[in-house]
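Batch manifest, entry 17 of 40.
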Amino acid sequence: MSLNVIDLIKGQLGPALVSQAASQFGESESGISKAIGGLLPAVVGGLANSADKPGVVDAITQASSSGILGNLLGGSSSNPIISTLLSSIFGDKVSGLVNSIASFSGVSNTTAGSLLNLVTGATVGTVGKYAADNNLGASGISSLLNDQKGIISSLLPAGLSLASFGLGAENWFGQAKETVSSVTSTAKDNISEGVATARENVSEGAREIREQFNNNNDNQGGGSIWKWLLPLLLLIAAAYFLWKQCEKKQTTTTTTTSDSATTSSTSDTAATVTTATPAPATAKTDENIDLNGVMLKGYKGGMEDQMISFLKSGGYKNAADDSALKDKWYDFDHVNFKMGSSTELETGSQGQLDNLVAILKAFPEAKIKVGGYTDKTGNEASNVKLSKARAEFIKAALAKAGVGAQVIAADGYGSQFAKVDAKASDAERAADRKMSIRFAK
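Output type: structure tokens
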């Protein structure tokens, strides 16, 4: 099971850093976050494409001991390791990458350039630290980076592509361009053949009409106008229909490359590859959840709402034993750990922990268990260890808040119950990375 290094790097690029960067550069947090979201797969892709270059591996090795992760905002822009590395992996395409990200995210070119340095620093620092922690040599680092090639294209945000950065797909993912070109050529041949056939049929039909018209004139001295006008009108309608069908073929030909599905709009002269934009998810909004007259902020139908409804209904009180409760888990909506950490929560997590404390205090007879889960990527033994440590952290936080006696266990399940494939996008796999609780007796 290959490791998705982007998951590791995101731990260095959380909300706190986004907020600091927005303040330092005078940009909106949404713009900074959007720019980082585009730059991260581009930088990892650049490293993956250059995995066999000695200079790249050396830079990653040096980064692990340079302290770069401790000063991403302050030290990335002037770090010689980063400037040399960017030149090595992107060459003269750096300015094109910066311009594309600035246009995509709405930040200035200066900010986009600074963020490129920051993201590169976070990337080499994180990969370098991982390599050091796991005793990876040069070949191990190269292998780790090469493993990323199959997932990079799927992680680019909608609206961005390697082509938009001025980076040729054939330079990053092997034969992708050759495949598209081959299919495009075949499609063009088929279209041309269809158009030629349609034109030939129309010409033949017109010839027959002319002959019929001439025969009518010879035999009947002109005859009725409808004897030749009606067939001509029908022929025109048929010709129009054939032309529209050929035109439709030209604009809707689809191709599939080896790593990811893309839609290619082809014409007689060019093929343009675009990435489909996913339908926007329905946004959730915090509402007032009634806890015996006290209003908690949470999602309607979310964790707090479900727990309070269950407790008020007598579901916990009437449960005969633990077996009656063990199959119903309540997922935290807001509690998230920083990537790779079991001791640092993402900004905004504390509010839901406070809500849980309030619920337990309002129902002192209720007892709970805490569960931690990961997605299917990474080493399973490490996943279990991490998820267990996170569950223990939640248990300790609840004990510190005065409800420790009601938390009877904290377990880590790793990826045991994960449902999303390891090769799916990070956004899809996020559903498996969660913290949950259940009532217990």
